[in-house]
Amino acid sequence: AGVSRSAASRALSGSGYVGQESRRRVLDAAAELGYVPHLTARHLKDRVSRCVGVLTLDLRRAEDAAVVAGVSAAAREAGLATMVADLGGHPLDALEALRDFVAFGIAGAVLCPVSGEPAAYLSRYGVPVVEVGHRFAGGTCDAVVVGSDGAGRGLGVTADEAGDMGRDAVGLLLRRFEDPARGVEVVRRGLGGPAA
Question: Quick one: CA dihedral 159, 109, 146, 90, positive or negative?
Answer without folding.
Answer: positive
